[in-house]
Amino acid sequence: MNYFPDEVIEHVFDFVTSQRDRNAISLVCKSWYKIERYSRQRVFIGNCYAINPERLLGRFPCLRSLTLKGKPHFADFNLVPHEWGGFVQPWIEALARSRLGLEELRLKRMVVTDVSLELLSRSFPNFKSLVLVSCEGFTTDGLASIAANCRHLRDLDLQENEIDDHRGQWLSCFPDTCTTLVTLNFACLEGETNLVALERLVARSPNLKSLKLNRAVPLDALARLMVCAPQIVDLGVGSYENDPDSESYLKLQAAIKKCTSLKRLSGFLEASPHCLSAFHPICHNLTSLNLSYAAEIHGSHLIKLIQHCKKLQRLWILDSIGDKGLAVVASTCKELQELRVFPTDLLGGGNTAVTEDGLVAISAGCPKLHSILYFCQQMTNAALITVAKNCPNFIRFRLCILEPNKPDHVTSQPLDEGFGAIVQACKNLRRLSLSGLLTDQVFQYIGMYATQLEMLSIAFAGDTDKGMLYVLNGCKKMRKLEIRDSPFGDTALLADVNKYQTMRSLWMSSCEVTLGGCKRLAQKAPWLNVEIINENDNNRMEENGHEGRQKVDKLYLYRTVVGTRTDAPPFVWIL
Amino acid sequence: MEKVGVCDDFVNLKATELRLGLPGTEDGCEEEKEKVSCGKSNKRALPETEKEIESTGKTEASPPKAQIVGWPPVRSYRKNSFQTKKNESEGQGMYVKVSMDGAPYLRKIDLTVYKQYPELMKSLENMFKFSVGEYFEREGYKGSDFVPTYEDKDGDWMLVGDVPWEMFVSSCKRLRIMKGSEVKGLGCGV
């Protein structure tokens, strides 16, 4: 390859798109490193504090697309205080100063402000795509800047963000000349929507493929929108209450029949179940169905809908579907690859909506299943062993038994054997979430068999430090380890400090690690940021002789090349 | 650990908490939001006791479980969206503003406490010290200078009484008692 001119090599590199592959290429030799860095257009940064914008731009001056992730995963469950960090502002400022031709920005779990959005909208004339997932800190005013100033906007995709809705006119801020929209997702906005502005925007966007509406868009507006956009591929229905005989419903039925490209359906944030039948004519085309917010649609209506969806690859649903409903899914959806079953009763004290039977049925009926997230009340080892036999192809297996420490409900044994069977059979397993009663044994299995495991979530599990050690020693590809309420302490934490160089991050909360242990770790590993999050004044971490006994409530450590961050709030102590 | 102490302090604070809500009502959803961390423990119940709980659990309602912070692991966004649904479906009251032409300030009423139109009318008449006259299907309200109107979901101003009560409650966003010359157009069928 060294005999080819650089342009040829660069052209070859254009075909290499995966970040991991490009990282590998850059390590081959100096000239490849140089060619690769100038031609790199997309960069993914899994932890925004592992690097800083200056160094990023120093290496990749021709960046077009940037993905940033901020808070650790457990922030999704309120375990990380809001002011912890993950601010996008310094990134946007640095990118703006460098006059980069940024076209795409994807952020997850970051703090985004209206100021940031305004700066973003004004600094990059070619900006095309904004995707915000689980972010917070901004309002519809920020959206108005994006709408008004980004002349070539293609994607505005807001997924599950906490947005302060000022009920302003952000939709009317899209100029009449804006006709380039491909994706418009504002399902997470809580306030009123200017329906007239929305209809006009959709009508002048011939390339619109993905439209996800919020609660405030009623059924008659939906019908009109679908008439304007029969080319739609991905639809999120907003408010779906109506009287089935009304004129709007008939119009909707007619409009739906014309949407022959519709493949993905979601939303139904407020839904009257009788109207689902309007969608039956296009169900045979659906590859993705997300009814996980449709709390008002119960078993029989869900089943009637799903019976038409023979091509479904992805299904997100509530546990109100029941084991019976899952059996219908198993017999109908033979192409199913990903299933998520969410709990309706979050207190976990009520109906046994789905059990191990539903999971077994799915595993038996859906040979292509590779990703599952399953919330349930009970589980058995026998069921998990059967699931492992039926589905050796799992890449992601996340099981959440709602009651912590719950054993096999038939034998009262821990679920070690069940999960052991899963990791032994599923040789490509990359992500695993455990629950139920578990001893150190399950971790021995994981360390032995889960060779491809990259992310592991542990809660209320294990007996001694041995458990955590099995994982740290065995799982060579581990990147993200998150542990809560488990009896792992300093011995496990400090056993192999260099291990953390190969991982993105480690989270431990309500475990047995002490302040002394964390300090020793920070001393041994200056390339790690060891953060102690301590919101409780009673437990103020003090410099005294009792560090060996002072338990740390929340520990978050991650490798970094840019040292201690400077934006940490007072309750975060970086050792 | 000290967690039990924290638990007690929290419970005592609740008595002095300022909340919006009628006195004497226990807001079930508020409890869910109070994340108390005393439920978690690293100790595991012995297998025998676990079995006991299992068998009795079927015949009686399980005791209310202490809330564990961040459990079950469901995104707060998702949890919150179910919260709003719960509030609405449990009838946490449907308060709408009521304005009366000429009155210096507005009032608010809870539509869900009324069963039908006459009850609502009586309540409004008492609140603002007026009377609406009699309702006729064709001509609207006759015999009074006052006409009750409401703004519906589409933003249109409608005469109160035309649609079935349930439909009215679900579509009414605010009420306005119109008076005087404007009324001639709506109420008197002239």
From TrEMBL, chain A:
Q: Which Pfam families does this chain map to?
A: F-box_5, LRR_6, Transp_inhibit
According to its UniProt record, where is this protein located? Nucleus
Q: Which GO terms describe its biological process?
A: auxin-activated signaling pathway; pollen maturation; SCF-dependent proteasomal ubiquitin-dependent protein catabolic process; stamen development
Q: What is its main location?
A: nucleus
| One cellular-component annotation, GO | SCF ubiquitin ligase complex
Domain F-box positions: 4-45
Q: Which residues cross the membrane?
A: none
Q: Which domain of life is it from?
A: Eukaryota
Name the record gives this protein = F-box domain-containing protein
Specify the taxonomic lineage: Eukaryota, Viridiplantae, Streptophyta, Embryophyta, Tracheophyta
Quote the SUPFAM superfamilies the UniProt record gives. RNI-like (SSF52047)
For this protein, the record's Gene3D superfamilies field holds: 1.20.1280.50, Ribonuclease Inhibitor
Native organism is Eutrema salsugineum (Saltwater cress)
Q: Which UniProt keywords apply?
A: Auxin signaling pathway, Developmental protein, Nucleus, Ubl conjugation pathway
Q: In which pathway does it act?
A: Protein modification; protein ubiquitination
- GO molecular function annotation: auxin binding
CDD domains for this protein: F-box_AtTIR1-like (cd22159)
From TrEMBL, chain B:
What are the record keywords, sorted? Auxin signaling pathway, Nucleus, Repressor, Transcription, Transcription regulation
Q: Which GO terms describe its biological process?
A: auxin-activated signaling pathway; regulation of DNA-templated transcription
Keyword Aminoacyl-tRNA synthetase in the entry? The reply is no
All residue ranges annotated as the PB1 domain in the record: 93-180
Kindly indicate whether the keyword Transcription regulation belongs to this entry. Answer: yes
Q: Where does the record place it?
A: Nucleus
Main localisation = nucleus
Q: Name one Pfam family in it.
A: AUX_IAA
InterPro entries noted in UniProt: AUX/IAA_dom, AUX_IAA, PB1-like
Q: Which GO terms describe its cellular component?
A: nucleus
Q: Where is this region: Disordered?
A: 22-69
Could you tell me where the Basic and acidic residues compositional bias lies? 45-57
Cite the record's note on assembly. Homodimers and heterodimers.
Tell me the function of this protein. Aux/IAA proteins are short-lived transcriptional factors that function as repressors of early auxin response genes at low auxin concentrations.
Q: Report the family membership.
A: Belongs to the Aux/IAA family.
Which PANTHER family does the protein's record reference? AUXIN-RESPONSIVE PROTEIN IAA17 (PTHR31734), AUXIN-RESPONSIVE PROTEIN IAA4 (PTHR31734:SF227)
Give the protein's recorded name: Auxin-responsive protein
